[in-house]
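Hi R.,

Here's the chain you asked about this morning:
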Amino acid sequence: MARTPAADKDSAASKKTKSFEQTLWATADKLRGTVESSEYKHVVLSLIFLKFISDKFELRQAELIAEGNGDYVHMVEFYTMTNTFYLPPDCRWDYIAKQAKQDDIAVKIDSALHQIEQRNKSLRGALPDNYFSRLNIDVSKLAALIDAINNIDTVLKNEGSGEAKAAAEEDIVGRVYEYFLGNFAATEGKGGGEFYTPKCVVNLLAEMIEPYHGKIYDPCCGSGGMFVQSIKFIESHQGNKKDISIYGQEQTSTTYKLAKMNLAIRGISANLGEVPADTFFKDQHPDLKADFIMANPPFNLKDWRDEKALVDDPRWAGYETPPTGNANYGWILHMISKLSDNGVAGFVLANGSMSTSTKGEGEIRKQIIDNDLVDCMIALPGQLFYTTQIPVCLWFLTKNKKEQTFSDGRKQHRNRQGETLFIDARNMGSMIDRTHKELTAEDISLIASTYHAWRGEPVSPLPLGEGLGEGREEQRTHPKILEFARELRKNQTDAEALIWQALRGRKLADAKFRRQHPVGHFIFDFYCHEHKLAIELDGSQHYQPEALQADKARAEFLAQQGIRVIRFDNRQVLVETEAVLESIYLALSALTPGPSPKGRGEYQDVAGFCKSATLADIQANDYVLTPGRYVGAAEVEDDGELFEEKMQQLTHTLFQQMAEAQALDAVIKQNLKGLGYVG
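And the predicted structure, written out as tokens:
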């Protein structure tokens, strides 16, 4: 990964945290023989939740005794005042852990969860109901899982205090939840997408719409990932999470419970409706006008209503009724109806939504465009989702494109009436395994900063000393950084050594790479100046909060320089070397666009990447919103070689290869003849 001289190798704390996640997953995965994969996530996450709230309860009880308030340890009010759930003795984790090997342990867990839900109003409808008893889980496997969870320290008893301590505790359990939700989604494949949206997509949505202040809404909230990331966005930008209100709805009962638990462990208050319910037929927030909407509706949902149902629904006012065969435009119109006068919505849809004309969908899209609601369209790369391998897109709608000034942390917007930004991000992202890709922090920063620059938001100039001379990075680099880079070259990891063997001497796509190369104040594992491409290999340190914060600062710097970064995990390099090299080759083959050459955040159209189009442009393209129609093709750099000379060289190579093929064919025929097979 990119490093500074102060950066250490993987810390002990990092290894410990990563280790218990992986160990816990391996233990939980053993349930597969007795419980369906679609079910056991609820078993695991319910137990983690119980462990966390029990640890919090015991810590609060100890605090009361230490403060001389031992007489009040059984009074509920003294726990709720610190956002701690009160737990009766037979609902506490230590009781469950001691009873883990008893034949009736499933009944005891169900009883504990039921009592906790009844005693705590905010958890109503959140916890499984007689779930463990009904599953008939093998007692030995359930006991092993309880033992594994028992080793997690979910609270920090002697470190820090106040909000910082609480945030750290929530992050420990939150990371476990995030890790498990992602792994469950990968395991379940298509079904996994019902409760999980890839983290990089959620991050991009949050960075684009900047939900600092007001009401946030998700009409199909899954496990609550959009809300969690909104809170993280606010905290990372020094905002106050008390400045927002969260509203959501989820139809699937088990997923609804997942969301309530996911938010509860992070101390996030939300109104998800009284019960799980269909957003179209039982809207639990009928009068809501949201300032921000973030959503990932089910792709291309069929038969979502009967022919005569919802025909005159007020949410379709001014538009044709969405067709029964696909709910995409039903979701779009529902979200438009929920936007406040200055509201903005960002949501995921299948690519077909940008161009379809089936059964009135084209007319609805035309009306949305004519009403000047479409602010930005982004085409994403394929393989981001566990639910589908096909590419998807992001829509960004707003009720107000006029010039605006904000007091909530957002920067001033220019007048964008009659304009729409198109971004083609299909060539971005890095492979994280053989079938899945993710957007890096630098990808997200580049896309979001392009959108913000287009909206006219002022961007601060580069910090002093971070400018780059063309091809002369070292001359602007502090001598100590150069010395540190030389030390890193002497102590490369196995993964770095393997990649360097494949890159050195222009072996891959004739690109000249340097290893442990300084750029500004950062050192990249591998860097190619001519392509402005950096490669980073990450150990577990990269996933720690401090490292992620450093990544964000670096991402902003790199986006301003037009540098593309692709990341790989060290293990991925060693195990899936060919896939990693293929990803690097593809990144080199595509022209990666950068922001304005001025490096100060001023927006410019970039061929093959972004285009600011007018309403007339969209009308000329039959109201199709596919970014590829507008951004055009990326400029191809002339290699300076005459066509005649190149053609002669290519022809010579082709004839040489054809001759070699004939020789090989003759050898194969001779070998077959020797085996008695004569043609």
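The domain at 189-427 is CATH 3.40.50.150 (Rossmann fold).

Let me know if you need anything else.
M.
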